[in-house]
Amino acid sequence: MTRPHRIDGLQYANWSEKIFRQMREGGVDAVHVTIAYHETFRETVLNMEQWNRWFERFPELIVQGRTGADVRRARAEGRTAIIFGFQNPSPIEDDIGLVEILHTLGARFMQLTYNNQSLLATGCYEAEDPGLTRMGREVIAEMNRVGLVIDMSHSAERSTLETIEASTRPIAITHANPHSWHPALRNKSDTVIRALAEAGGMLGFSLYPHHLKGGTDCTLASFCEAMARTAEMVGAEHLGIGSDLCQDQPDSIVEWMRTGRWTKGVDFGEGSADAPGFPPMPDWFGDNRDFGTIETGLRDAGFSAEDVAGIMGENWLRFFDEGFGAS
Amino acid sequence: MTRPHRIDGLQYANWSEKIFRQMREGGVDAVHVTIAYHETFRETVLNMEQWNRWFERFPELIVQGRTGADVRRARAEGRTAIIFGFQNPSPIEDDIGLVEILHTLGARFMQLTYNNQSLLATGCYEAEDPGLTRMGREVIAEMNRVGLVIDMSHSAERSTLETIEASTRPIAITHANPHSWHPALRNKSDTVIRALAEAGGMLGFSLYPHHLKGGTDCTLASFCEAMARTAEMVGAEHLGIGSDLCQDQPDSIVEWMRTGRWTKGVDFGEGSADAPGFPPMPDWFGDNRDFGTIETGLRDAGFSAEDVAGIMGENWLRFFDEGFGAS
Q: What are the contacts of B136-140 at 24+ separation with CB within 8 A?
């Protein structure tokens, strides 16, 4: 039998040949990579230029992915498809025309907010969530039109529910866990998870320690049990992995992720003054070579072979097929 | 017999539904349109956004063209393929990585210079022509790699000859005429035309009055005779039309074309203080509906049916097939 596809719904590593080789060792067929946190349009294009250099330098390991078909082709060629995404709408600045331009350049996911209020919607760390803005509703329609998937991983509850309602196409929460399992501000309520799934959306389970029950000490069994409970609630076909792997990043990067240029002060985000840096990953998931461990964990949690295949990648692949083209 | 393709190698009109409809009336299957004269990268992207709005608004008339196959498809669907190009390397600024980014966004032609010295090469109005710069040689290699065609319409002699030599792929002079027919600074020597053709390149004959013998009063017979003499010299398969049609543009636009932001003064370019604006077009070529007139003129000048088909579009189509993909 053919091995099912293995797809990661989000990573933000300090990219290197070493990591690209680990993707191949781990049999990872596609990764949605973050190429902007707070970057302007021009800065985002510079990040794309850096990826173009990697594609040119390591053609035997990686290739840009724009469609589900690209992921299948990458797999057949023994490469990993790299799919661009933004954790913030900063790349479109105040210009809705940049949605199509960035989609043409390969962007396939964009979060409407990153923790804070944006021009479009509200982030999960704001005290108030007034919901979608005027521009937010316009940008959702444009993203739906061109096939740029809406990602609400870092968004607040009302904004997320209004987005699911306003979007004519399924959306994604690429990297977050159920709040009922671990009540972090970044994790999602059952209300959101149900609405997401009812609208055909996808939830990528995160392995970032601050999103895990017990943090770094979270066990594989507990993680897979949380997936099993969520599958009972909404069906396994809406679940995937979005590891949020930030491999080899220096702590200066988590500072950039949290504070960008919006404050002169310090914001610890999900960290704290005592532990301001990246938290250590659980010992059972350190890099791209460890996806097989999760697969084993899912089987041990009682998932069928079909459900395991879906969660490890086939569900994301179906979602890419449906979400990445023009409407 | 199927009508041969009709392709215009350059236009810079004041685009409107009226002009798009005239393209259809004239049976024009593809047009290379200028989307930057002196624009920065961001300004060029804004121009692409404007085109995206037109593609969205007039899908029954126009469609973006990126390949020869797109031109054939446009024709089968009764639309005109619009192919983006720049008359100056200003859109890449000082960043070679923007060559690939802009190619991904659909750019298929880029001039290395527009009249003046650029970061890459020398324009035809400079007193001295020191030839290709260090960055010029790097950018030529990158354009060759990604399939962005080099256009030397506004370049000086030595820079043009060195570019033909340095480029591993055929280049184009999309809109200019033989200097031996009409000795304008913008027209090309027989040395350049021979070198261009020997390297597999294309010369698009211009209908801009300053490039024509007799200017606005140039006759169709004289124009076609110039093409016939050039075909005798290098072969009709290297010739096409590049009308340089600037339909409906106000004179403020020819000022922008000539002076951009490089001078606070006035530069009349090919015009003069007495006639600073756009010159009137010859009465036999006023807009896109008049390509049939040129076709008749070519037949009357003694060209074979095959050569007429080549000059009116099939030669450009073959060149697009060979030039627009990655090497």
A: B136/B112, B136/B163, B137/B166, B138/B96, B139/B89, B139/B92, B139/B96, B139/B99, B139/B112, B140/B112, B140/B166, B140/B167
